[in-house]
Amino acid sequence: MKREEKLYKLIKLKYTMTYEIPIVNKNDKIIKHKKRSEVLQSDICRVSALWITNSNKEVLIAKRAMTKKNHPGLWGPAVAGTVEKDETYYQNIVKETEEEIGIRTEDVKEHKKDFTNGKHIHFTMWYILNIDKKIEEFTIQKEEVDEIRWISYEKLKEDIKISPEKYLLSLVQKIEEGFFE
Hints:
This protein has 181 residues and is an alpha+beta fold. Helices cover 26% and strands 34% of the residues. The protein has helices at residues 3-18, 89-101, 153-162, 169-176; strands at residues 20-24, 30-35, 44-53, 58-64, 75-77, 79-82, 109-117, 121-130, 145-152.
């Protein structure tokens, strides 16, 4: 492991142990804040997620880094992140988009808020961005994302039918709901 990677992991570990996230009730109202390391599975958190499309009717998907604690190596939306203290869903997705894929934009459009009651309980605010960029024009944050790729909506639907285990449940659910139709 490179020295820079070790240093990044140490900084990230310290940061994730100390930064706080809002804990909300079933109406998405903040009831308290907790250090990330102290969040229980029964706590309800806030997440923002971004679907990126292009004019070729393709969707940008991201493969989570194998070092991620939750769902390593699974394909999901282009960008996602846990909302932090004093941050809105919108502020979080703008920040995460720049950090994870190197795109600085405020042109994301709010789409829909969902409630997920699974292994992790959270509200997810979904955003959409239409952008025409080649894969080489993105700069991925290797600690968060192993790979990104453009895929047609039809091919994505087909692949999910064949190998749903490769994808985050939230992505599978969105495709089943006809998110891009």
